[in-house]
Amino acid sequence: AMFDADSDGAAEHVYYNGFKVASDDTGKGLYGKVAVVNLGIQHMAESCLQGRGVMIDLRTHCGDERRMVGYDEHMAIMKKDDVEVSAADLVCLHTGFADPIVAAATAPDLEPVGAVCTVLDENDRKLLNWISESGLTALISDNVAVEQSSSFAREMAESGPVLPLHEHCLFKVGVPLGELWHLSKLNVWLRENRRSRFFLTAPPLSVPGAVGSPATPVSTV
């Protein structure tokens, strides 16, 4: 990915805040083969991911069919459920994708879980801008990749990133993504109590240089 991190008009091979992963002279990684030690998951493990969680319940409004949700529909759902996202919030998207995964684990004869439940429309520029402008701290979902995963069939653009939302969040604005979280029970409680906010603690493993890690999230309501 390349983007203009310092607003000088030139796109460069850098992560957010201008962190470079390769030498301008040799093209080799600056911090080993993976080259992301400065942005490794160990920093998040030391400080922990903790704060106010906000649940956006896509499943109730969109059902279980595989389809993409863009900015307009996303905002309409938030308005209908009286959900507000403020700066530093940990935003959780409930699509229901975790339920068939859990069911398949206890019923091996079921068909493999495929392309079901909603995903965010990664090509909707207004949606990506909302992620930046809302000031949210993390974007978490119970599905694979939050956006349309390259693991499933999709129409590819002529050029550009395979996962535009990943590029936008991880490379450009430094927003971590959570995938395959089991949000169903929490979502049920929140809807029954007419709430969308809760306290969330989700420390990852401390693996220096790793680009991601399993988390052990706990919600308090």
UniProtKB/TrEMBL annotation:
PANTHER family listed in its UniProt record: PTHR34861
Gene3D superfamilies per record: Putative cyclase
Biological-process GO terms, alphabetical: L-tryptophan catabolic process to kynurenine
InterPro entries per record: KFase_sf
GO molecular function: arylformamidase activity
Name of the protein in question: Cyclase
Organism in which the protein naturally occurs: marine metagenome
